[in-house]
Design goal:
This protein is α+β, with helices and mostly antiparallel strands and 643 residues long. The strands form 3 sheets. The chain has a 21-stranded mixed β-sheet that branches. The protein has a two-stranded antiparallel sheet with strand order 22-23. A two-stranded antiparallel sheet has the order 24-25. It is elongated and about 100 Å long.
Amino acid sequence: MIKQRIKRIIVACLMLLFLLLATAFISRGSLLRHVADKRIARLEQRYGLDISYNQLRMKGLNTISVSGLNVVPEERDTLLALQSLNVRINLWKLLWGDINIKDVRMDGLSLNFIKQGPVANYDFLFLPHSESEKSTPTSKSNADYTRRINTTLNLLFGLLPGNGELTHLTITERKDSNFVSFRIPRFLIDHYCFHSQIAVQEDSLNQNWNTEGEFNPSERHLRAILYAPQLTVPYINRRFGAEVQFDSLTCSFSQKKLEGGVTCLVGQSEVRGLNIYHKRLSPEIINLDQGQLDFHINVSPQAVELDSASLVRFNALTFHPYLKAERAGNTASRKEWHFTASVRKPWFPSEELFGSLPKGLFENLEGLSTTGQLAYHFLLDVDFSRLDSLKFESELKEKDFRILHYGKTDLSKMSGEFTYTAYENGQPVYTFPVGSSWEYFTPLDSISPLLQMSVMQSEDGAFFYHQGFLPDAMREALIHDLEVRKFARGGSTISMQLVKNVFLNRSKNIARKLEEALIVWLIETEHLTPKARMYEVYLNIAEWGPMVYGIREAADFYFKKRPSQLSIEESIFLASIVPKPKHFKNSFTADGRLQESQEGYFRLIAERLVKKGVITEEQAAQVNINNLVLKGVAKASFVSEDF
């Protein structure tokens, strides 16, 4: 009797379950539309959108079908239009909150990002997601980077289907009269492998790209390659004034979760045939045959770190970089950040470095051949909340190093007479030989020791003792530049100024600073030009006023004297105008007398001359700015021009 009752209950439960499933199956389309319409209404209200579709239904138990979908922001151009989409999902995983798309069939997707003047049809994408975010301006800084990267990767691997076919895709970005469009006739995914062709048009430039790759959601792995003969990256020129081309770009990574809530991305990126141009980098196109980064990126809640296990391959050169960006607080303040960067490369063949320099980046070093060993150490540690604690170290050491062949430029040319050309705004304005054949050339022993030491104490007091660089001066300059947020100081030594003027163009760019540093190191380390000769060249080519070059012209222009006849005040004055020679008049009143504000500088240099034994304390005490009297052309300029 009891067994029969149990059987009846089981049968009744099964029938009830069947009825529920049947009802759910029959009404699944209605339920889907109800949920979708509710979500759509919320999005429309929040972002001011008009979202419509022709049909939304379920096919079977796990396939969603939508057709005629349109997204139009209020009083804006259509953002999204879709003809048809069929998505088959993993229902079991969806019940556990895990989005997993098994198959996608899409046709006729059109995405249009359009901006006319200040009005864009995608402005709503940058609006806060909730009222709490609107009222909390610093909420963006409360980000947990581990959570962000995990959410992004979960979405990526969840939305990538194992199989799919996407046809007639178009993505367009238009700003006023400029535009970039990507047209994908067919994007095929077969057993987690994908490939496609992409037609790219940017204004009048047309390209055809190819892409292919594979992914494994269960192992959290993705590999993709983009390639085309001299592929030109769109939008970069219009936005940044740069041109970037390459033949192929490959990237692969796997996600791993470590202890302590840290997510690790391990992978490799490689570029071949890279060409880059930007005037702030170099006046010439930079060519890199092959570059590769094997990366280990650790993402913690408050920091992102490129582990030193990472490896950079730069043509024939390899090294292990370390980078870390860490936020110490919970606000969006710039002072909360702490950056660390370091490279330590033990002894390696010197030709790995000089043979790997990309063409166009180091023009004067092209063709340079060397032998011997090098070792390099670099450290930059910047805590923006305590800039005074900044650490900066950079040292390139050599062992049995020799230059076998100079290549394009003779780096020892300053040792003998050579031709120097001065530039103004990138244009040559004055060319003359630096040697005895030039009537205004002045040997070092014919220049007043007062002038020699005054300039040295003003520009680079340790010139005869350092190897071309003053790390402490560069550190102080970097601290100042970070404080004012611009390149205001450079920490240059006389060696660096000399190389900049003799070997390099005057354009300010990153490549020039790197090339300058390498040439200085080569000249100083290999003693290609004696220090005394370097200083002699410096004083004979330095600009001392508008179109006034060399100490002989300077002494005559200001005082109608020879460089050996200069007084203490005259020497200190000439040293004071070296940094800004074209603005020498700023040091004077309208009647040609030195400004009282110059007195402190004169006293400072006089004290340094005493310490160097060039003058006595009695002579320093008698230094008076009123003793400085202009003569000749400099004096006449105050009379003939309004000051």
